[in-house]
Amino acid sequence: MARSGTLSVRGPLIVREELACIAMAMHNADPEMGVTIRAPTSMAEDSHALQLVELTQVIDVTLHFVAGYSVSKVLDAIVTQAHKGWQTLWSCAAVPGLVSRKVNIYGPSGEVLRRVTIKEDRIEGEDRPVA
User: Fold this and answer.
1) What's the CATH number where 57 sits?
2) How far apart are CA 78 and CA 27, in angstroms?
3) pLDDT value at residue 37
4) CA distances to 51, 67, 95 from 79, in Å
5) How many domains does the chain have?
6) What one-character DSSP code corresponds to residue 94?
7) Which of 29, 43, 44, 90 makes the best surface tag, with the fewest CB within 10 Å?
8) Mean pLDDT estimate for the chain
9) How many helices (H) and strands (E) does the chain have?
10) By residue range, what is the domain housing residue 105?
């Protein structure tokens, strides 16, 4: 069975090219992996985003597998690429008031595998054990 993942984003300043870079980083970490990018949603279309008080961009990734040597490599690749993109976005100050980017990585049953918040030049987060 092929390994796959789904990538989506919600919040301000959605950049499709950046999603493509994250998808490519996932594929580079595991060349057998297929990645589906779902259409971005705006803040108004997303009820979860409407609950956010500050301007936060949220990237959600669902991995449809959690076994094998490549899982931790894929998790690291997602966070690293999301951080690189954030540094570029934040340094340009393209969106006044944009304060953070959250990356949520879920397993096939919806369990949290990794959840990080990227602010300025640091990553704050938590990991869950991966089987």
Assistant:
1) 3.30.429
2) 10
3) 84
4) 24, 19, 21
5) 1
6) -
7) 44
8) 75
9) 3, 6
10) 4-127
